Amino acid sequence: MDETPDAAAAAAHDATAIDGADPRFAALPSRPGKIVAIHLSYASRADQRGRRPEHPSYFFKPSSSVGVSGGTVERPAGTELLAFEGEIALVIGTAARRVGIDAAWGHVAWVTASNDLGLYDLRANDKGSNVRSKGGDGFTPIGPALIDARTVDPAALRVRTWLNGELVQHDTTAGLIFPLAQLVADLSQHFTLEPGDVILTGTPAGSSVAAPGDVVEVEVDVPGGASSGRLVTTVTAGSAGFDAALGSLPAVDDTQRAEAWGSREAAGLPVAQAPDSSAAGLSPELRAKLVAVPVAALSAQLRKRGLDNVHIDGVRPLAVDVKLVGTARTLRFVPNREDLFRSHGGGYNAQKRAFDAVGAGEVIVIEARGEADSGTLGDILAIRANARGAAGVVTDGGVRDAAAVAAVGIPVFSAGSHPAVLGRKHVPWDHDLTIACGGATVQPGDVIVGDDDGVIVIPRAIVDEVVDAALAQEDEDAWIAQRVAEGHPIEGLFPMNADWRTRYAASWTSDEEEAR
């Protein structure tokens, strides 16, 4: 028989008293057996991140991370990106196992405020588990007061966060992608939610970085009604760092800075020139034209427009008779340095993020400085790009598992094949920025076209006029070739003088009349 929330609370408080009433859990009925947090749940946050999950995904936080209102949280020495996340916390009152959405809220006893603090400096090697980045002591302050879940509408709760007195987060549960009851029901499919367990339900847009001396306050309430009160946490500077002999050290790059602060602008970084799908995407008609015209013809038209440095030199296709057409998605490797590879080479590094993010019709273009004595991708990444609908890959470095990569069927142009992995020559550093590949500058959104002659880069702004001019030139060259085959000398015909130009124009008029 299910316990009532009041009975569960009494039992929990008795257990706490026996345990010595640990002050860290003063705002809760007991020390939680489990703290379960969701990665992404608010539409505002999903829009800020540029990705919206189809289903909720979760991670665990240790109960030792719980803190109290009025307490402090330490930012470890040698780190810079301690981010706050104001959230609604649900406290389970009665055990829930395989409950439906309609019954799920009945297993929630209380609602309160929480701050899901995280250290982005430690995210790289956690691969989404957040064990180190979100498991630190005091990284989950909760409280200060519990709201009886039976008295509130779970669709009408509000969460607000203040940083040094300034309101920085403000959203309601109406903005959730997944309703609160769904989270309870979903988790109960996989394991028993027990009395005292805590579910952190995600943070809205506005999460950012807090520095030593900053004060973060979070409040959950029903507007005009019950409130958790303000959960107050002060950030302090830690004196202890991390030992490289025991595990990976903190490391940050511009991607982590942008995610921790909420945007590149907030982090003080230049705005990335990421692809704009509405502008850079190729219509089916334009794509068909680019497939039909040879790279050599496009190159000639670019030269006529003063663009001589648009060829990605030194790359060849892994297979013959392939055509590559798409818009650029860029990835940059820097020369290997052992300490930098330890911090940036493992985990969910820039290379993996780029292959996970590539979209349909896009080409991953890799800057590897023409250094082909190490692989810059292998068959697993080629399969991932193909599954994402990518148009192809161009790298001025090497390819591992070349035969297997070719067998995937996605067009790949490279400087050669090599069995070594990244760490021999390269560190994956950043993506979606202006790069140099095979001596050519490539920006995200540039149009990339490749065939057996090589690969060229076409600025998006002129691609329509270039391809139309190239197709017209192809028709003209085909007519000239036919005349040469008939025995006419090249002089005056290639290029055409005024007489031959008149004949060419007349041939088109004749063809049009026959067509009518």
TrEMBL record:
Cofactor(s) this protein cannot do without: Mg(2+)
InterPro entries from the UniProt entry: Fumarylacetoacetase-like_C, Fumarylacetoacetase_C_sf, RraA/RraA-like, RraA/RraA-like_sf
Keywords tagged on the record: Isomerase, Magnesium, Metal-binding
Gene3D superfamilies membership: Fumarylacetoacetase-like, C-terminal domain, Ribonuclease E inhibitor RraA/RraA-like
Signal peptide extent: none
GO function terms (MF aspect): isomerase activity; metal ion binding
Entry binding sites for Mg(2+): D401
Residues bound to substrate: G378, D379, I380, L381, R400
Record-annotated Fumarylacetoacetase-like C-terminal domain positions: 34-235
UniProt-listed SUPFAM superfamilies: FAH (SSF56529), RraA-like (SSF89562)
NCBIfam families in the record: PRK08245.1 (NF006093), PRK12764.1 (NF009399)
Entry protein name: Homoprotocatechuate catabolism bifunctional isomerase/decarboxylase
Species for this entry: Microbacterium terrae
Name of encoding gene: hpcE_2
